[in-house]
Known about the structure:
Number of helices of chain A: 13
Distance between the termini of chain B: 63 Å
Strand content of chain B: 15-25%
Order of helices and strands of chain A: HHHHHHHHHHHHH
Structural class of chain B: alpha+beta
Mean pLDDT of chain B: 90
Low-confidence stretches of chain A: none
Number of strands of chain B: 19
Helix content of chain B: 25-40%
Shape of chain B: globular
Radius of gyration of chain B: 26 Å
Radius of gyration of chain A: 24 Å
Oligomer: heterodimer
Helix content of chain A: over 70%
Distance between the termini of chain A: 10 Å
Low-confidence stretches of chain B: 1-35
Number of helices of chain B: 17
Mean pLDDT of chain A: 87
Amino acid sequence: MKYLVQSMIKTIPVLLLITLIVFLLIRVTGDPVSLMLPETATEEERDSLRESMGLNEPLPIQYFSYLGDLVTGDFGDSFRYNTDALSLVLERLPATFELAIASMIVAIIISVPLGILSAVKRNSFFDLFITGGAVLGKAMPNFWLGIMLILFLSVTFQIFPVSGRGTLGHLVLPAITLGTGIAAEMTRLIRSSMLEILEQDFIRTARSKGLRESIIVNKHAFRNALIPVVTIMALQTATLVGGTLITETVFAWPGLGQLLVQSVNLRDMAVVQAATFIIAIFVILSNLLADLIYRFLDPRIKYE
Amino acid sequence: MKKQLWLLLLVLTLIIAGCSGGETNSTEGEEPVETSDSKTLVIANGTDIVTFDIHDHNTTSTEAVHVNMFNYLVTNQGEEGFQADLAESWENIDDTTWSFKLKEGVTFHNGEELTADDVKFTLERVAKDDTLLEHGNYNQIEAVNVISDYEFEIVTANPEPALLNRLSRLGSAILPQEYIETEGWEVFLENPVGTGPYKFMDWQRDDRLTLEANTEYFGDAPKWEELVFRSIPEDSTRVSELLTGGVDVAVNIPPTDVARINETEGVTTVQSPTQRVMMLVLRTDDDSVTGDPLVREAIDLAIDKQAMVDSLLEGAGTVTRTRVTPGNVGANEDLYGESLYDPERARELLAEAGYPDGFELTLTGPNGRYLKDRETVELIAAMLSEVGITVNQELIEWSAFNQRYQERDFAEMFYIGYGNSMFDASLALDRLTIENAEGETDYDNQQVNDLLLAAEQNMDEEERAQQYQEAQEIIAEDRPQIYMFQLDAITGINERLEFEPLLNEMFYADSITLK
């Protein structure tokens, strides 16, 4: 409990730093007014818009007034949608969660059997094939994989719908796109973790007792190999978020990633700030969760 | 062990196949049928609409959706003039007063009847509130005086020959006063109400907006039962949706995908001009090398615009020597569809101007703002180097470019594209008056200045158009701006549909019909 409270307190400076970095970055990369008004707008029109958006104030004053509002849960209004930024972000979370969970399931379905097989059949053709495939899976850019999946499975064979959110079918291609990279990472991890465990004394003891190999692999080795894997899964949140930016745009998936990409393009400051803040909280929480899971799986670990 | 693993893999494969198999049937059965049989029209846009506040956006793609829910007083039919929409008739009483009569019996989607009070409420809001994005296009309106329930007058601060152009574009729809005043703007923005042929059903941001037919519509009965506007930002995904029948109409097709779509059975593309004209803007002051008219002419002659349209745009554009293209009031059609290219003569002109060995200049352009902008600037630089002009290319990101554009901080030349939502020459040429050109082109031609200022407030339509046409001829010779080409919009459509794109890029659903 004490550890939990301490961790929570530690997140405050991290969050503050994130607000500052995002606040400055979005302001130095361009003026939203220039993106909102057409080329033909007059100087007066630009000035009056800048004024009404509060962009005429000096940066430190803007930042502190932003922080002040933040404390009360007010992230400001979206320039683009003219509505509360936080509610825009929260409205998108379910879609992104849906995609993230589906991608994780895809990653687990692919990586667990392949990782085990690869370790058990070490240095065999299977192993070579699987580790090679993992490198390929990791190297493929999301947008390319997404577009290729659409071309083959939607356009040529018409198995899945191309884009949008609705039925379970709509979820398959984006989940595979986003899950493949994570699956590749996890496959390699499960393999190396399994290899390490299979070398250990208690496995040798189990073998010498004459236990069946399947029991050794599934019961003794895999459970122990799972500890680092589960931790890594929780740490994949940041990768998942990064992936949703591209995957959601390619598949017109109405989630947080797409909202963030469009808001960055239009310098919709309030939305970018709200979205990155919420994402930061999730990443921090999932790291904390990883610590706790670690402890749960391996009672020898104690946090003081 | 081996058996178990294989069994596990087999089961997993079956699960995956099972999942997708089920969906396969549902999607194959549902999606294409839904759009080919039913009276639902699905249009894929590159971006979602931004708001239902018609006065607080300036996005053509948003307005293209709004026109199905709201009505203007009059609509601009280009060369055929203005047509009645909510207004039954109108008259220009004196230089600053216009009187209008509304159609009777028009109702909003909530049952309220449209009256002159709604018009006053709507137009005075945008004319007076300077925080609204469309304010600059309506602040010429001084007041709307209600005469009776169906009659009103619009009073402008100065003579405003282009008033009807203003009233037939983005932000001109009429809103329900009572509904907004009693329920508040927030309720209106969640549940927008207009007079149009389709009414609001549902909006999932960045996903889809659904409208349904308004059976009480005052005009011809709506042709579709339901309209779905989908937001699909990625070009290749939008094209794929069109190819698989997921959508009926897909906007902004990249030129490189046109051939692929046209080769696919059941879908095709239509190409149509837009209001955007790409151009080089040149400094004409004596301190700049481009201050010499011979140099500007040489630059014009050295650039093969038709080759750019053919190669970079794959034909999706039209060369022009004026910014006021057909369909706009005051267009000079003699200058449209042609361009000058004569590199030999360009070299001679440079020698005549005292630069037989060429010279150096800087060309600034935005990167990623317009279709193929970077490539165009690079090609211009290459073509100019052929006649001896060394070009320092400065390609910068749009907001940085725009910052310098506002500060009028460019060197000899910059590359830009202007749209024109007014469909009138006044907006197209207003940067070329002596006052407005200061610091940008420093273009200083008294005759052009007089023509533009006179036309700006001339209430005689014919004479006004002639003044603009004459000004364009002089500008084409003086070249403070060298026009490259007018961009085309490419729209992909399902072949079951009949569709003719409009110059203003609006999607009136009822103009899209089944064959």
